[in-house]
């Protein structure tokens, strides 16, 4: 006879059935309570932002008033594929004041918090050490050689801002992670987990979807300037991972002699702000800035970020967001695995990952696996 039947033995026979039912229900409730979701730790990438451990993250968008329709298209897609589930805020930045129309027609697209900021002349302007006459001559020279954006002054301010300043804007002070967005890009796949939580929980610092080769005419002295920095600041370099543990071989194919032009396409970035806010990166950026290459050449933020991250981070701190289908200026990353066909609206045949001569993804894959 079991202990349970023994205990029932003390109860009058006519009440035993009721006692049995009451005991069973109590046991059931007790069991349900101990396994209730409230008591369990949340699933790793829960669909709602965690109230107990939120990730301090935002979208950051540098954009002009004239790009209103393009940025509306981007936001509609990011809301549909990701942010209507996670509600991360948007930070809009501009070298000009945003118009009322821009503000009204962007904030209506989301229920998330939005903020709008204007850049000051330190973040968007010539530093005192730049010879603006020489810079103008260099722009003409590059234009005559047909270098993309070679003649553009604002493009250079943009690249310098994205390289050295966006993460120091006061509207980003409350955040640890960002997702960079641009007007007129495409997002093709449903993202049903919190990418920022993924970054944080896995100690990832830099996430990308596409890699590209750079026009070397835009960065002729960038690599040598980085090399100069490394030899002048050994106390900074000693904080960085070894060549083997870093991603350095992604950006150089001759053991550091020259830049191989590979970079992460920075129009899409999901990354940790502390990477750029670190003293090491700020020292490197200031050194690059003082050399004048943002204005006398046309250094892009993509090669600057990529070279810095490749040297400063461990390989395992990078993440390839294969599951985020993305298009920028006609180039698409479309996940090819059949499991994505129900989640994505892109054609896997358009996938750029292995585009010969243009994509550096094969280089990334080889270095990551080495
Ligand atoms: N406010 C402002 N934003 C700018 C300016 N120039 C570029 N941007 C923004 O900076 C980002 C990068 O500029 P793009 O012109 O797209 O540069 P890109 O991606 O290298 O070039 P494309 O291949 O033409 O797209 C985009 O979000 C632009 O909206 C500018 O002069 N003012
Ligand atoms: Mg662009």
UniProtKB/TrEMBL annotation:
Alphabetically ordered keywords of this record: Transferase
Keyword rRNA-binding: no
Active site: 269
Alphabetized GO MF terms: alpha-1,2-mannosyltransferase activity
SUPFAM superfamilies with a match to the protein in the record: Nucleotide-diphospho-sugar transferases (SSF53448)
Superkingdom field: Eukaryota
One Pfam family linked to the record: Glyco_transf_15
Secreted keyword on record: no
Alphabetical GO biological process terms: cell wall mannoprotein biosynthetic process; protein N-linked glycosylation; protein O-linked glycosylation
Gene Ontology CC terms, in alphabetical order: Golgi apparatus; membrane
Family of this protein: Belongs to the glycosyltransferase 15 family.
Entry protein name: Glycosyl transferase
């Amino acid at each position: 006879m079991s202990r349970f039947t023994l205990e029932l033995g003390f109860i009058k026979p006519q009440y035993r059935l009721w006692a049995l039912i009451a005991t069973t229900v109590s046991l059931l409730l007790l069991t349900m309570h101990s396994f209730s979701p409230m008591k369990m730790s949340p699933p790793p990438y829960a669909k709602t932002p965690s109230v107990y451990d939120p990730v301090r993250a935002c979208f950051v968008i540098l954009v002009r008033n004239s790009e209103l329709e393009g940025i509306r298209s981007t936001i509609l897609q990011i809301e549909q594929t990701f942010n209507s589930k996670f509600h991360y805020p948007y930070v809009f930045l501009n070298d000009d004041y945003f118009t009322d129309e821009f503000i009204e027609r962007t904030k209506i697209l989301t229920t998330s918090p939005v903020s709008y900021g204007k850049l000051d002349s330190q973040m968007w302007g010539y530093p005192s050490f730049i010879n603006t006459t020489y810079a103008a001559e260099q722009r003409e020279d590059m234009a005559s050689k047909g270098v993309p954006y070679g003649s553009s002054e604002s493009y250079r301010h943009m690249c310098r801002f994205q390289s050295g300043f966006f993460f120091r804007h006061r509207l980003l002070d409350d955040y640890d992670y960002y997702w960079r967005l641009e007007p007129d890009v495409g997002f093709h796949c449903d993202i049903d987990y919190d990418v920022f939580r993924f970054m944080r929980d896995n100690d990832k610092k830099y996430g990308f979807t596409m890699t590209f080769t750079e026009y070397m005419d835009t960065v002729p002295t960038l690599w040598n300037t980085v090399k100069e920095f490394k030899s002048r600041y050994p106390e900074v370099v000693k904080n960085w991972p070894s060549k083997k543990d870093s991603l350095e071989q992604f950006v150089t194919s001759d053991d550091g002699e020259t830049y191989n032009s590979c970079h992460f396409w920075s129009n899409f970035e999901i990354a940790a702000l502390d990477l750029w806010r670190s003293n090491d990166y700020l020292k490197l950026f200031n050194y690059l800035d003082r050399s004048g290459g943002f204005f006398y050449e046309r250094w892009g933020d993509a090669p600057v970020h990529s070279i810095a991250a490749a040297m400063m981070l461990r390989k395992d701190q990078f993440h390839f967001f294969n599951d985020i289908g993305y298009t920028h200026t006609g180039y698409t990353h479309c996940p090819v695995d059949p499991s994505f066909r129900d989640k994505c609206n892109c054609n896997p045949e358009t996938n750029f990952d292995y585009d010969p001569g243009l994509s550096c993804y094969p280089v990334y894959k080889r270095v990551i696996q080495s």
